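quick one before i forget lol
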Amino acid sequence: MNDVLHQLRDRKSVRAYLEKPIAPDDKRAILEAACAAPTAGNQQLYTILDITDQKLKDTLAETCDHQPFIAQAPLVLIFCADCQKWYDAFDAGGCQPRKPGVGDLLLACSDANIAAQNAVTAAWSLGIGSCYIGDVMEQCETHRQLLNLPDYVFPAAMVVFGYPTAQQQSREKPRRRALPYMVHENGYRRMNAGELERMLADNAGQRPYADWLKAFCDRKYNSDFSREMTRSVEEYLKNFKE
């Protein structure tokens, strides 16, 4: 197994950081790696917000589900799906563009998340950990104003970066599911209840599977933050459905 495969296999989320800044050259390397990512038609349908204002970090730590480690991270990047730039360019060039639609947004989200993963992989190769923050999709009205987001820009992902503490370095990475559950040949195969239970057995650990599944559903899928995320994303979508 080569170094790239080792790093992809071993990378894990890091939520506690040393009080050590990221060197400008390393930050630039991370950003350049992000912008070198695969992209639809070489359009680069994203904009990366580099959050350097500590007060803004502090606010995001609260609006993104009250997670203090966001404010403590030396590097905070928000990867926005951006349909605004190309629309504005087409409009300024007299191309009479149609309004961006939901398909355009989904393609831009794909671009933004690919760029984010390039940044994450580059950072890990430099000894810098990271954590994705999906909660940036919540609180549409607040984040629009806070980040000055125009109509056709959506915050697809926030990633925080920093050098991991010793505890974070030694923390075991949660085991991923076996390939047969994740890879279906030539078409989707819906799994039965028994297969799903076997797939999730590691997550349940020593707890009865049904008890664990109910608790996890309540904590994640049926949670207030999950409902808020759905509400917020629906609000963002309104501009793409007009």
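fyi The chain has a mean pLDDT of 97.
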